[in-house]
Amino acid sequence: MSKFATGKYAYSISDRSGFRYRYKDMRKEWTGALVGKDEWEAKQPQLGPFRKVIDAQALRDARPDIKAAMVVYVGVPTPENMKPRPIIGFAKVGTVTVSTT
Question: With a threshold of 0.85, does the pTM exceed it?
């Protein structure tokens, strides 16, 4: 036994337009409104549910800072040794030390 009548001869009023439709031709929208078959609209995809976007907080396999000298070769090779002289620099925040070897 069903709890409700079939509504075989029943009519209903649309929540959107106020027109009369057969009860069995009515549809319920995602907003909860009961509308006629020709007035029914599907839910737009922009209205959700939205996928979760997670911002990365840490790096995988992170390494600590290494204090290493930075070697920069400046100039053109000389005919004597065909190798430019390196300039080795050590830097800190606000100061730079340059030495030649």
Answer: no
